[in-house]
Amino acid sequence: MFTFKVVPDNGDEFVIKAGTRDVLVWEKTNKGKSYAQLLRDPNLTDYYKLSHIAAKRQGLFTGSLKDWEDQHELDLSFDDEAADEEPDPTQSGPSPDHSSN
């Protein structure tokens, strides 16, 4: 559902995948919040809460949300799908521009 590249102040970066169980906990602990709202209008507060929930569930972090926020950056430019894709061998480079004849 959501993939976060996490950059701790001390230590190596890692990737967290937040699934439906994490989103469910996030919805239940944040009155008036919904999955649809998160997709429509994401914000850093919700990303930090969701990534904290996922990190705790996966045993990657045991501290409080405040500790998580104080000790970690979320790399929002990280594109999990692009990182998983293999380059297309049929596309060796840009096509030549033939319109300048």
From TrEMBL:
Region Disordered, residue ranges: 75-101
Comp. bias intervals (Polar residues): 90-101
Biased composition, class Acidic residues, residue ranges: 76-88
Protein name listed in UniProt: Uncharacterized protein
Provenance organism: Kribbella jiaozuonensis
